[in-house]
Amino acid sequence: MKKTLDHIGVAVRQLDESINFYQNVLGAKLIDRYRSEKSGVESEIAVMDVNGTTTELLAPTNNTTSPIARFIKQKGKGVHHIAYRVDDLEMAIDDLKQKGIRVMEETRRVNKHGRRLIYLNPADTDGTIIEYCDYPEEGDT
Asked: How far is CA 91 from the centre of its chain?
């Protein structure tokens, strides 16, 4: 199954400062900014476009329960995850399971842009947080 880089998620403490850096230093365009208080997300997200490459800046909205807050506490600011776009999320999950790679079912969701996503278990990915995603509204499934 074909996989392409969809975006990189970056954990940040101060979203406005990070947006400023991406815009003024990297020449990025702010595509969207929104909050998600869903359990397992609890973040404010800024979607940045740098010449056709998407970066999601992720700032925790709850320093106790947000997975981004836990990540920053354990590892500091920086790259949180790498997301790969697949043609069909369900088929990709089946393929992973056949290969003995576990997915984190509690992370399965659809974001506000219609992106279906799930995270692979970092214990099976050499410690890297990897997201698989698809966009069924765009005809990917």
From this structure: 20
Instruction: Name the residue type at position 35.
Output: R
Residue 69: in which H helix or E strand, if any? helix 67-75
Distance of CA 28 to the CA centre of its chain: 18
Structure tokens that stand for 141 in this block: 């499934």
Distance in angstroms (rounded) separating the CA atoms of residues 73 and 67: 10
Note the pTM of the prediction, 2 decimals. Answer: 0.90
Residue 54, classified by CB atoms within 10 Å of its CB into exposed (0-12), middle (13-18) or buried (19+), is middle
Q: Report all structural domains of the chain as residue ranges with CATH numbers, in order of start.
A: 3-138 (3.10.180.10)
Q: For 22, phi and psi rounded to 5 degrees? A: -60, -40
pLDDT digits (tens, 9 = 90+) for 21-77: 999 999 999 999 999 988 778 999 999 999 999 999 999 999 888 999 999 999 999
- Largest interatomic CA distance in the chain: 45
Q: Identify the pLDDT of residue 139.
A: 60
Calculate the average pLDDT of the chain. 94
- Tell me the C-alpha distance between 118 and 5, whole Å: 15
